[in-house]
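Researcher: Please predict.
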Amino acid sequence: QVQLVESGGGLVQAGGSLRLSCAASGRTFSSYAMGWFRQAPGKEREFVAAISRNSAITKYEDSVKGRFTISRDNAKNTVSLQMNSLKPEDTAVYYCAADSTSNYYRAPDDEHQYDYWGQGTQVTVSS
């Protein structure tokens, strides 16, 4: 099993930046593909970004391409989401998730693929 704890959320003005981090417990972090999802009030949870076990593959939701960057450090058991040029529509609770079944070259965008989830961190972008 793995436990995930997100941090780095907060309130920022439109056009600003935030960096979210997710710390994972356990010794097998490199065995998991990792993803970020978000859920805005009154909306379903949606995919944001994912990264494969070896960082070779990354995937982004269309609206965040060019603004968000996902990265991971397997030595430190962390995955990060750098968010630039933030927009009010990025306001949501952001969740980190781990997928234990993907091979080295998969970065799933389907939330049902993920086994473990963090508690979430709130990101609020003011206009």
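Model: The chain has a mean pLDDT of 96.
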